[in-house]
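Ticket #4471: complex job returned nothing on first submit. Input attached below:
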Amino acid sequence: MKKNIIVGQSGGPTAVINSSLWGIITEGKRHPEQIGCVYGMHNGIEGLLADSYTDLSGTLSDEDLALLKATPAAYLGSCRYKLPENLSSEVYRTLFDKLNRLNIGYFLYIGGNDSMDTVSKLARYAENTESPIRFIGIPKTIDNDLIETDHTPGYGSAAKYVATTVREITLDACVYQQRSVTIVEIMGRHAGWLTAASALARKEPGDNPLLIYLPEAPFDLEKFSSDLEQAFRKNSNVVVCVSEGIADSSGHFICEYSSDAQIDTFGHKMLTGCGKILENYVRNRFGVKVRSVELNVSQRCSGLTVSATDMEEAALAGQFGVISALEQKTRSMVAFKREQDSDSYHIAPCLIDVSAVCNKEKAFPGEWISEKGSDISSEFLHYAVPLIRGEVPRIMEDGIPKYLYRK
Amino acid sequence: MKKNIIVGQSGGPTAVINSSLWGIITEGKRHPEQIGCVYGMHNGIEGLLADSYTDLSGTLSDEDLALLKATPAAYLGSCRYKLPENLSSEVYRTLFDKLNRLNIGYFLYIGGNDSMDTVSKLARYAENTESPIRFIGIPKTIDNDLIETDHTPGYGSAAKYVATTVREITLDACVYQQRSVTIVEIMGRHAGWLTAASALARKEPGDNPLLIYLPEAPFDLEKFSSDLEQAFRKNSNVVVCVSEGIADSSGHFICEYSSDAQIDTFGHKMLTGCGKILENYVRNRFGVKVRSVELNVSQRCSGLTVSATDMEEAALAGQFGVISALEQKTRSMVAFKREQDSDSYHIAPCLIDVSAVCNKEKAFPGEWISEKGSDISSEFLHYAVPLIRGEVPRIMEDGIPKYLYRK
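Support reply: We reran it on our side without changes. The output follows.
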């Protein structure tokens, strides 16, 4: 007897989270004998609770689907809803009643850490209540901080954006002869994977960015000053890349160094990034021209720097999720295994226990950070270059990208 | 008798300032009977004074030239050197001695307002001293604030970057159901041309960005609050685009509203943009989720959002500059005339008196700003869409753009 698929998106957007959605819809349509339709819940689990969803397989045209695959941010909308730890809580019965009324056989959830927690809880509730519904998590995060997978869809495109933009900022920062410092603040509160990608901006070793600081290594202002003095001997224009989450040895975030002091004219506390703090520090310590650039949300929603590798892997993760669900797999997350034995890059999808993944974070490997704590090793470049390779055809209208909007 | 060309770049970078340089080098090579070689001075006029220059026509391969055309920021380096008003000052004799020693017949300078001032002074000195050297200015500025030209090379690509990025930020800002405000700060201290380009991000009229504020209209915090309240009735996620240079009716910059109050932990004054000020204001006034995004230098150095129209026009400006110099034109700037009588977009290059251009600014037309001062009229869209049209082939290496670096 035919069953339906329901899919949701949760957590922060990425450039390819909709490519995974595309993979789920198109794979779902390939099995008409087993699958009725593919429902999309709006704003993740919140939409299911509010009976807000659409039949994606029935309403999206082929042209819509092509646009969807290339549209950044979460087409279905997102949420940060956390299910209660206590599985006997009322909300679970409510959710399963709704799933049964929609004749759902397969529940797929595209998201990061917290979303995998949702998948784990629903799957365990299903086991306890002997529900036949299958629950599969499709990973996505620009932070690349999920364990037990070589990398996560979304990271490659964000890394490509960071590497491209830092290369261009470096060109821009070097046009004048006068000494200057340019500080680039990159996303990553706890994990330095994205900031490390700034090392890919170098044409040759020793190029800018001359200094790179990750949250995994303690940050010290005095050491930063001496690092800068050394860097000035190599280049009068120094580009510094820092994770938003860099902290000192006592665990105190650099971005909080001024929060007690900064008040606007209305007497309100101002929030600043660590880039601004360091910009100000360098200006007063060195008296040179200094600028800080916060790459901000474009890291996760830029559609013109998407990595073709990343987009295809995101689509594959969605397709593999559907196939696994049809094979009655559950309480699993799709993961990627890299073939180590081959020189050429090759990735194979696999399933891992979602309960083992959720609420854990994969930090950037300490051995890939230079001894001085201000650079990245070549092992990382070897790991990351394949993830940012490949261009996606551009779909434009009136000179800017054409994207799919939810009605 | 053969003469040489010397070319320099000055002022802030753009995505296509090197396309004009490409146009000058390639056009220069097309006239071997009149032109010996094309010298490039490093860091503008400063390089000429320091005898720092290269023979571009002799050293750049065809592949180099193809990369140069697509490389953002100033390949030759830039400067902000202002020549003295007094034409009898020693520096002029020094400069002309150097030009004569290099057998220069044609001096081309790619830049904005201040650079045109340099061209004007050198040309007038040449007239006074009966020097045969010809001086032509090639316009470039992302600000689009040069008078007597339909637009300036560099603006189209910056506008395309702003429109593309604001469209993507809007997708990102709308994924959650909770009310939110996203403030995008766009370059433009005095002229609102670039901020106005954010209106191109809309798919349909009435879409985000719901509020757009330019420096040409006085900004009032109380009116901003009521504009926001109205915007919330249309959309729970409001995107606001502001020029960095918005000021109140007394001419006081909004970005200075907190500069006296903001002090870092070391007791130093912090510099903030108006986006941060407004972010803080909205957070405290409305208590909603709010974020500010400063688009920053990528507006002028992003190589993946270059407008093909802009790139070709920038190259044309360089080529037309060489041809005009060979026709013994001088003290002129290349400008663009738009054919008004045709529906299709067509631009013709022409020459204008450079002395009439320099040190003047073209403000955004008041009649293109809505009565409420928070939106842009459709006349602007009609003006701007052709300038951002067309894609440029991407030249990539290891997943990021390949650019030409000066040895």
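The mean pLDDT of chain B is 95. Closing as resolved unless it happens again.
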